[in-house]
Design goal:
Length: 342
């Protein structure tokens, strides 16, 4: 079990939406990769044949960012990188306020949002931040209602969402919020079925999906939900296979990706609800704590204890061979959590 503080100490064997801010500029290119098992039924046949016929490579300008908890920094790598490579950017040091960054998000401009493990404030860095730099702004204080934060998400509107695992709530802040500001909405209470909420993601209908790390479930709330409201979607039950869901993301087909630190990465069909089986389950990852999909629906996974970031084909299933892995001493990876692409 990973060494941890606050939340992870409170929940045995527990450790982390990926928030996909964008992967603009991705272009297909030729090249080979190790074929995976048969495509899940939720993946269109045209996509499956493309994946099996030849690889699509990430654009050389696209970077993948991770909250590197145990080293106290945020690291970025070229999405096309592989092996024991140094990060292209590193945000860390005393000026950053980062200690054990355990939550990460990004907005459409590339601004980086981070919160420390169990922290009650969010630091926002410029899109080109690098090194020991101060945040552009900080959100926090008694009015903010921020509790122990283990998940962040920025909606297309620019509004920031934060999960409060200690108080079983999620809060929303206006775009550009700064300082000791009150949230514009807060979801919490017995009707919500929130249970140690962590990672979040938003679907095309602006519904907010939340991973319940201590509830073996994923719940979603309607656009505009506020207060003690019931979820409109609940994915839970023995058929789901969920154990400790942590990070969430959607791919371009609306499939829900769930990084479950107790079981692997689950792929659920668009519109999944109830006690439903996943379309696919990617295993062979020691401790998946972050997930995101790129413009080709390739699935990137952060492996907390494996100190690595792995990329899988969109039709990966079972103990699949990664298309590439970023791992090794030069990477500086130590407790990688949430992932974002930009």
């Amino acid at each position: 079990m990973p060494t941890s503080t606050s939340y992870r100490r409170c929940l045995p064997a527990l450790v982390l939406v990926a928030s996909l801010a964008g992967c603009a500029g991705n272009q297909a290119s030729s090249g080979g990769f190790v074929p995976q098992s048969a495509a899940p039924s939720g993946l269109p046949a045209s996509d499956a044949s493309t994946q099996m016929a030849g690889a699509v490579q990430p654009d050389s300008k696209v970077h993948i960012f991770t909250a590197n908890r145990d080293s106290g920094d945020v690291l970025a790598f070229l999405a096309s990188a592989s092996g024991n490579v140094a990060p292209s950017r590193k945000i860390g040091g005393s000026k950053t306020t980062l200690s054990q960054p355990d939550a990460l998000a990004m907005d459409a401009s590339g601004a980086i949002y981070a919160a420390n493990d169990g922290g009650t404030q969010v630091a926002v860095f410029a899109s080109d931040a690098n090194g020991n730099v101060k945040p552009q702004r900080i959100i926090g204080g008694s009015k903010s209602q921020l509790g122990p934060t283990e998940g962040l998400m920025v909606a297309p509107s620019g509004n920031l969402w934060a999960s409060d695992y200690g108080n079983n709530a999620v809060t929303e802040y206006a775009a550009g919020a700064q300082g000791n500001v009150a949230p514009i909405s807060a979801i919490g209470g017995s009707k919500t079925h929130l249970s140690t909420p962590v990672g979040m993601a938003m679907d095309s209908n602006s519904r907010v999906f939340v991973a319940n790390a201590n509830g073996a479930s994923v719940v979603a709330f309607a656009s505009g939900a506020n207060g003690n409201v019931a979820p409109v979607v609940t994915i839970a039950g023995s058929n789901t296979g969920l154990s400790r869901p942590f990070a969430l993301a959607f791919d371009s087909h609306g499939r829900l990706l769930v990084a479950d630190e107790g079981a692997g990465v689950f792929v659920f069909a668009k519109g999944a609800n109830g006690n439903v089986a996943p379309l696919a389950k990617i295993t062979g990852i020691s401790y998946p704590t972050g997930v995101v999909a790129d413009g080709h629906d390739h699935i990137y996974v952060a492996d907390f204890t494996g100190n690595s970031i792995k990329e899988f084909a969109s039709n990966a299933n079972g103990n699949a061979t990664p298309l590439r892995s970023i791992t090794g001493s030069n990477t500086g990876l130590s407790g990688a959590n949430y992932l974002v692409l930009h």
